Every structure is written in structure tokens, then in C-alpha cells.
Amino acid sequence: MKNAIRKFAIVAGAATASFALATGPALAVPSTVWTVNPSPASFTATNSGNIVLSVNGIAMTCTTSGASGTMASATGNPAVVASISAINFGTAGTPCTSVLGNVTTVPTTPWTINAADYTAATGTTKGYVGNIVADVTVGACKFRVTGKASGNYVNSTGKLSVASTSGELIVSNSTNCGSAVPNGAKPIFTGAYLVKKTGTTTIPTIVGSNP
């Protein structure tokens, strides 16, 4: 009987050790201290490539877009490391376009840049652009887009890449859009911006760590 109990204890101990090894990486503590450099500071961002809002397969494409705001170090997970006080999509000379006609977008700011995960090896911060609110007009069709859009920021290039997933953004207040852009539609927002400290060529950096 004692031998049986001893064998059971050995087997149970080995199983516990294996489980601990298997689940160990999942226990990693996410970054909660975010060091932004320079901080605090203002920034500007210019699109790199097209900015696209796609609703039910209808692509609304902007070849020109820019943003500005402020950035600062922060604590938390996720944490707001920057606030976008102004953002534009298209200009009078280069309007955003779609198969339904030219597209006009009027954002309600501030939007936020939220940091949630940091990979030191690549200097990449993953997170999302939050507090998104924008009223979109395409011909007689008008609708509102709200929510957030997942993205990442790379320190070496200063590139903020945005690629929302289905359901992060939602259409509401749809008027004269029919089945093309109904309420409850889940648009996808994609694009990239190059970020610099205002008036300089300095690329800001974001580094996540634990206290």
C-alpha cells in the first residue's frame, strides 16, 4: 500500500511540473509602464499609402490623410500614450473616393492611441486606436462609424499601422444608404501613418516595461 501511494505521489508531482511548464508563458505579466520619448510632446502623422474604410465590400479610399495630437508616457494596461486632436481624410484637391461617389468624413476627436503589449526584440507596441467617432457622407448616403481599430507602432520607422478586425467598428445613424451601408454593419479600417515630433524629423519611441 505504501509503495502504491509513493508511486502515485511521484506521478502526480511529475504531472504538476509538466502542467506548470506548459502554462508558464501564459503567466507573463503584460507591460504596465509605457515610456514615450519625447514626453510630453506634440506629433504629426502623415499617411503612408492608401487609407481605406471598407463596408460590405465597398472600399472608400483616401490617398491623403493626416493627424496631429499629443503624446506622453503613461501607466496602465491598456494605457493611453497619445491623443489625436485632429485627423483629416482627403482634401478638396484629393477627395476620398468609392464606387458610390466621393467620400467626406468628419471625425469627432479626440481619438486615442492605446498601448497594450510590447515586443522589445522588434521595438513594436501593439494596441489600438480608440474612441473613434466619424460621420461619413457618400452622395445622399450618410452614416456614423464608432469604436476602435487594432494596430501596432514600430519604433525604428515611426510607422503606426492600423487594421481593425470585424466588430471593432460599428455603423449607426445610417440614412439613405439602403442595404449598402445598413445600421449594424461592421466596417474595416486599414492604413498606415508615419509619426514625427511636430516640426522635426524626430521619430517618437514607445517602450513598455513592468515596474
Question: What is this entry, summarized?
Answer:
It is globular and about 50 Å long. The chain has 211 residues and is mostly beta strands.
How would you describe what is shown here?
The model is unreliable at 1-26 (pLDDT under 50). The protein has one helix and 15 strands; from the N terminus they run αβββββββββββββββ. The strands form two sheets. Strands 2-5-7-9-10-11-12-14 form an eight-stranded antiparallel barrel. A three-stranded antiparallel beta sheet has the order 6-1-15, with no helix packed on it. It starts with a helix and ends with a strand. It has one helix at residues 2-23, and strands at 33-37, 41-47, 51-55, 58-62, 65-71, 74-75, 79-89, 103-107, 111-119, 124-138, 141-154, 159-163, 169-175, 188-197, 205-209. It has one domain (31-209). Strand 9 and strand 10 (124-138) form a beta hairpin. Helices cover 10% and strands 53% of the residues. With 211 residues, it is mainly beta. The protein is globular, with a radius of gyration of 23 Å.
